[in-house]
Amino acid sequence: MGKKYKIVYDKKNCIGGLICVDIAPEFWRMDGAVATINNQKATKDKDKEELIFDEKDLSHNLEAAEGCPVAVIKIIDLETGEQLYPKE
Ligand code: SF4
């Protein structure tokens, strides 16, 4: 088993604009005017969404997170608890 990571998405502060969807459509799609995680395993409520994913998808998810103009996509290393993006 490889390492696991987590997306923590602060949906209430998304401003739309589609950059995450453009970069990583297998992880993001639009839900009206804002983005939503494009995966049935994601936990979702009105303001916040989370998804655990594998190491093979880390660089792609970091790229989408870094592309978000308001940095509402956090990437967490589940093993160490470190927040990989945005850096704290
Ligand atoms: S890039 Fe950020 S602000 Fe833009 S749709 Fe995705 S999550 Fe929302």
Entry summary:
This protein is an alpha+beta fold.
List keywords for this structure.
88 residues; alpha+beta; Alpha-Beta Plaits; two-stranded antiparallel sheet; 7 strands; 17% helix; binds iron/sulfur cluster
The CATH topology turns out to be: Alpha-Beta Plaits
Mean pLDDT: 96
Structural class: alpha+beta
- How many E strands? 7
Described by strand count, sense and barrel closure, the largest sheet is: 5 strands, antiparallel
Query: What is the CATH top level name?
Result: Alpha Beta
How many domains is the backbone divided into? 1
Query: Strand-residue fraction?
Result: 35-45%
The helicity comes to 10-25%
> How many DSSP helices?
2
- Residue runs with pLDDT of under 50 for 5 or more positions: none
Could you please describe the fold and organization of this structure?
It contains two helices and seven strands. By secondary structure, it is α+β, with helices and mostly antiparallel strands. It has one domain: Alpha-Beta Plaits (2-Layer Sandwich). The N and C termini lie far apart (28 Å). The mean pLDDT is 96. It binds iron/sulfur cluster.
